[in-house]
Amino acid sequence: MSESSQDNINNPDGSITSVPTRFPYVPATPEPSPQNPVVSKDITVNRSKSTWMRLYVPTAALNGGSSEKLPLVVYYHGGGFATGSVDFYPHHDFCNLMARELNAVFASPSYRLAPVNRLPAAYNC
Questions:
Q1: Are the C-beta atoms of 106 and 76 separated by less than 8 Å?
Q2: pLDDT of residue 95
Q3: Which of 10-19, 99-108, 114-123 is most confident?
Q4: 3-state secondary structure at position 5
Q5: Where is this region: Disordered (predicted)?
Q6: Residue ranges covered by each domain of the chain
Q7: Is the pLDDT assigned to residue 105 strictly greater than 90?
Q8: What is the pLDDT of residues 38-86, one digit of tens each?
Q9: Contact 98, 106 (CB under 8 A)
Q10: Parallel, antiparallel, or unpaired: how do β-strands 72-74 and 105-109 relate?
Q11: Residue 125 CB partners (closer than 8 Å, separation 6+)
């Protein structure tokens, strides 16, 4: 599926700014509640490159007081290095569900997207 021209802004310097419109954004949910079995928090990775990650932790692990270590799963969202974001609803919902079902901590890092950032920029966080 290709991005339509309305999803990108051509800048005077020849660069392109992507305007993601396909999925709604979802904020992190840092406060535990009965309706929210997983808490999530956004953490800056590299401010100069605008990279960050969202961490998901099951509330059962926070409330149990157990010293048991949880597995860590690193989830890279799809999109072929050209579209998507950690905070898009489908990615957030998937990580939230999996953290709860697997009783694991999920880390979902962002990466710089093409065509705004040419490869290998996505790998250089």
A1: no
A2: 93
A3: 99-108
A4: helix
A5: 1-40
A6: 34-123
A7: yes
A8: 999 999 988 887 788 999 999 888 766 667 889 999 998 876 666 677 7
A9: yes
A10: parallel
A11: 45, 46, 49, 51, 109, 111, 112
Both tokens of 71, joined, read: 């597995």
Q: How many angstroms separate the first and last alpha carbons of the chain?
A: 26
Query: How far is residue 94's CA from residue 80's CA, in Å, rounded to a whole number?
Result: 18
Which candidate, 28, 49, 31, places its Cα nearest to that of 116?
49
The pLDDT, as a whole number, for residue 125 is: 57
> What is the C-alpha to C-alpha distance for residues 84 and 78, in angstroms, rounded to an integer?
7
Residue 123 three-state SS: helix
- Amino acid type, 20: P
Identify the residue with better confidence: 30 or 21: 30
Tokens of 49: 């490159």
Provide the token pair at 112: 């710089």
The CATH superfamily holding the domain 34-123 is Alpha/Beta hydrolase fold, catalytic domain (3.40.50.1820)
**pTM reported for the whole predicted model:** 0.73
